[in-house]
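Crash report, auto-generated. Payload:
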Amino acid sequence: MSNNITLSLDDVKTLSLSVLTQNGYSETHAAAITDVIYACQLDDCHSHGLFRLFMCVDTMQGGQVDGHALPTITEPGPSVVKADANKGISLLALNEAMPRLVEKAKTQGMAALAINNCFHFSALWPEVEMLSQQGLVGIAMVPSHAWVAPAGGTRGTLGTNPLAFSWPRLEKDPFTFDFATSQFARGEIELYRRAGKPLPEGVAIDKNGKPTTDPEAAMEGAMLTFGGYKGSALSIMIELMAGPLIDDLTSLESIAAADGNTGAPYHGEIILAMNPEMLSGGKVAQNDERAERLFADIIDQGARLPSQRRYQARARNLERNALEIPAQLYQDILKLKG
Amino acid sequence: MSNNITLSLDDVKTLSLSVLTQNGYSETHAAAITDVIYACQLDDCHSHGLFRLFMCVDTMQGGQVDGHALPTITEPGPSVVKADANKGISLLALNEAMPRLVEKAKTQGMAALAINNCFHFSALWPEVEMLSQQGLVGIAMVPSHAWVAPAGGTRGTLGTNPLAFSWPRLEKDPFTFDFATSQFARGEIELYRRAGKPLPEGVAIDKNGKPTTDPEAAMEGAMLTFGGYKGSALSIMIELMAGPLIDDLTSLESIAAADGNTGAPYHGEIILAMNPEMLSGGKVAQNDERAERLFADIIDQGARLPSQRRYQARARNLERNALEIPAQLYQDILKLKG
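Recovered output after restart:
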């Protein structure tokens, strides 16, 4: 007996498109959002797949997002693209700016894309994998809301500030990671709360800045970064690069701007793209072999490369042209339709 | 009673220059190396100050470094500078390429410098602070030798792989960090071994891949990364970006190339530079204020910004035009002179 239902891959897209267009998003926004929701669901990445439709609807109900906003793309320098999302979800701006980022990285060797004034709810790995699909190396960073304390601190200042990286492999799926710089994702703490289970040590502090394993106290207090003062420094780097560097909000400013609304946070994003052809002096094949020897040495000792479970799920789901989601999730999504 | 001796700032430079020129380094190499040794010693950063003269001499005695190598600088793309150190210490190549990196970042918005075929012994913060002194944001990465196991692994594959970042502040010393992605620096384990003290848990594994707190067993086994699988992923990113991306060695290849020699490892380095003027659309002052509000919120809760102790030491030592080093270190350095 399974509590899952099977959807064809087309059904996933149709379901996402219809929920979004019936909840205030234009056809173009719905298509851009569906691209990423579909990519995540195809990889059995449930937390960022169809489940995110609830956040998209919640964000619309908050009344701050513009579901019909048209992005404005500018090029303030030969290696810089800026995409102003004009208060839309980030993904339409991303899609429109991505070809220019790719072209700049290919011709200049290195380029940056800054997305501004966007609501952002999505995983970052689909964004850096757009670059590795083009033979480029990609790095992406976003702030979020000030839920995470700096090392040695007592309250939320930093976002969960994910960092994503993708490296193109000539014969294989890319080497990709995408992790929050908080020790836990915010949703994980919520799962512990619902299950009535204590958190591990070192994940959170209470509202007085004292260590806590109580999920309720953690939600009222602050989360901690991974890796102590080093993870905290990395998180501050992400705040600076995806915030003030590109003239956009810090996680402190983003949570203030939300004014109590839940839903996707409003802020900026930075994506860097590097061209191995130019940086290696034309020796891409030799250096692909060099990287493969590194990966082989990691795998040979029983360690795992990140994202491999996703790639296995992707291959399996593409093969059968269908995927499974929890039946209850499906029922709940149907209720989002008008 | 102090075991320190006082040196004038000029004495520090003169001592470094004379040791280096008497041990096989040309005047220009000795000057480039001394710049960084002096910068570190001025900040009371003892591990990377005059103490590193021993490593410079050790590297020369290994017979692989060219103390007179002249770097070759090329520009394979509008946003890429490549500096071939031609088997010299990295720092002369760095100094010669840095003005081109700065100019490219200022005119293009974003640029990368790849240093190739270099011996590298130095802290990375002086390199990224060269960029923040110019109003640019800097990131630097290097591999090292394969002493560090990936998360879930049993042997050394990765280097200690430091990551350095510097953010220019309009009115203050920059926000800078420079940390190894290994949990401990290799020298720290050596200090525990000499002191006969057990290591903390989670720092190292023995030669069979089992957790150990015995420093001796750790030196025969492998170190662990900070922050578990996230720190491990970050370390792999640094291997890829400072290795195969720029056509240079991984930490596995670097330790093999050393052929048992101690001294500075031989590999490459990547430095990224970003121009806030262009990325912020000309709003540097407003975004400096925004970053300062973030820093103020961190400090206000009793947390510390990295590098503050260095800046305090720098101010103190510049004020008195002198600094202190252990008397024994001074005696040992004098023995390096011919």
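Post-recovery validation: Chain B is about 45% helix and 20% strand.
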